[in-house]
Design a protein that fits this description.
The protein has about 190 residues and is mainly β. The chain folds into two domains: about 1-100, OB fold (Dihydrolipoamide Acetyltransferase, E2P), CATH 2.40.50.500; about 115-190, no CATH class. Helix content is about 15%, strand content about 40%. The protein contains three helices and twelve strands, in the order ββαβββββαββββαβ. It has a five-stranded mixed β-barrel with strand order 3-4-5-7-6. Strands 11-10-9-8-12 form a five-stranded antiparallel sheet, sandwiched between helices. The chain is globular. The termini are far apart.
Length: about 190
Amino acid sequence: MSCNSTRTVTEKSTDTEAVVAKCKTAGVITDMSGLDGCQKMIETKDGKKYMVFEGWPSDIDMQTGLEIMFNFEIVPDIMSICMAESAHIRITCLEVTGGQNGRGKPEKPECFDTKDPLSVKWMKDAVYKHEPVEIKKYNYEDGWAYYLTGGPVSYLYDCQGNLMCEVPGRIFNDCVKLIGTLGQGTVIWVQND
């Protein structure tokens, strides 16, 4: 059921506004397709990532950065090779709350080109969270990618701060293959002891 151009609700009710008020969980669409077997997921403020099994409305593009309010049911006994998701879910209520421009597409977050990671909020947060030894910058598609290395896990982010993939330890995976296609890269930050 469409409420207006920016809100769609999948619960059935005669009172549209009452249904919208029932969508209680805030989330944002995150692209996890850089990880083996993963796809776009809904990430909540507490860091949980939900893979949608069913219930996503066909009239809404699941675009990275799309902000939503939603209700869900966990679908038990679903296995996937992704292993980054907290659970598979069935959407029972959905409201688009942000990240859309006039064409119904999400607004693209700012792409940062920097040599000072601590001057960019998402990078500064990532440095404190992951505690890398160094950060390399690569040309990537229409912007840049940043590779945080040196901890038990290394992380590759796009220039908008979306996690593209991760490398646990010295494991050779699809993320390592992707990084290999990006060329040499430039070291832009080294941890000071």
